[in-house]
Amino acid sequence: MRTDRINLFKPVRNLLALLALAPLTLHAQTTAAPVEPLVQVDTSLIYALIALAVVQVIFILAMAGIMRTMAGPGAWAKWLAGKGKAAVLVPVLFLVSQHADAQAYVPEDTPINNYAMFWWLVGINVFLFIFVLAQINVLRSLTRAITGADAKEAEQEPAKGPTWVDKVLMRLTRQVAVEKEQDILMHHEYDGIRELDNVLPPWWLWLFYFTIAWGVVYLINVHVINVVPDQKTEYAQEMEQARVDVAAYMATLKNSVDENNVTRTDDPSVIANGKAIFTQYCTPCHGPDAAGSETSVGPNLTDAYWLHGGDVKDIFKTVKYGVPEKGMISWKAQIKPVEIAAVVNYILTLKGTGGPTQKAPQGDLWTGGGSGEAPTDSVTTAIDTTRMAAR
């Protein structure tokens, strides 16, 4: 029975053509910065590559002698008329490529180093190996041309049967061959149309059986032995996990608080932290009790009057951005947002704690409702403030 042989000549021929054209594009080089060598080359490796090249040259010469002995005028004519036509172009390409080498400047009297020699020898050995493969393929073609094996195999070649793909499809569908459809024709007929009694495809049957088995497994695991939770329990578990995940995520956002999302809190740790920060940064202007005095720069923070709003968001904005025209600096570069929120919450706990030396009220009476915007008249209350202080 004939087996298809692998034709090595075509890919080898194409590769030889590419190698022939390679100098046209790859020999145009430019000077570049030195790079780390990919291979550590020593003298023994150079000698080994030279020896390998010599062995391949000897083998090529031996094969050439065998081919000259075997090939007569008729054999060479047959081969050149068939697969050998394109091979004639390969030496021509090599000859053409020899005149297209645009090389980079090399200083005079510079000997080639081992690393460059290594890659030259690698290229030579690869070329010789490809040439050996080409010789072997040509020798096989000459042998078959002389013996007439191709014609004999063509005469003895049996008819091709179904491929493995066809066999797999036939097993999956159990499809009846066209010439045997008469055996499965059903007896009834509708308007001249008769029906084939095809069986169900095996792939469909196995899929149906699998769904039944899966239903049994699901029923036992979920509703009998309770290995897998049912949908209601699984939903409750996932919601609980979601609450945990949201809480963990919100914990990471504490430092991203701003005037839009800051909230009031009575957490003792937050209030204590705010008191410590207030004592460190705010007492020079507002006094140690935040009530100020008649000689203090900052206003009283313990009464119900505010210059720029008394809501938690308003106070946060005032501390964060400051009021430069009134001597209140911006603290956003020195205090973290979470620390500003702590200070604001501490200040809100001081309402009504001012002593007899507290500073007179300034601004407007705050009754709640924080819009986040400063009152329209909060920056023009000098007359009212003076009048209130005179009372």
Percent strand: under 5%
Give the rounded overall mean pLDDT.
Answer: 75
Order of helices and strands: HHHHHHHEEHHHHEHHEH
What's the CATH first level of the largest domain?
A: Mainly Alpha
Given the helix and strand composition, which structural class is it?
Answer: mainly alpha
Q: What percent of residues adopt helix (DSSP H or I)?
A: 40-55%
**Overall tally of domains:** 4
Per CATH, the superfamily of the largest domain is Cytochrome c-like domain
State the major sheet.
2 strands, antiparallel
Number of strands: 4
| CATH topology annotation of the largest domain | Cytochrome Bc1 Complex, Chain D, domain 2
Q: Write down the overall geometry.
A: elongated
Question: Between the first and last Cα atoms, what is the distance in angstroms?
Answer: 123 Å
Number of helices: 14
Strand order of the largest sheet: 1-2
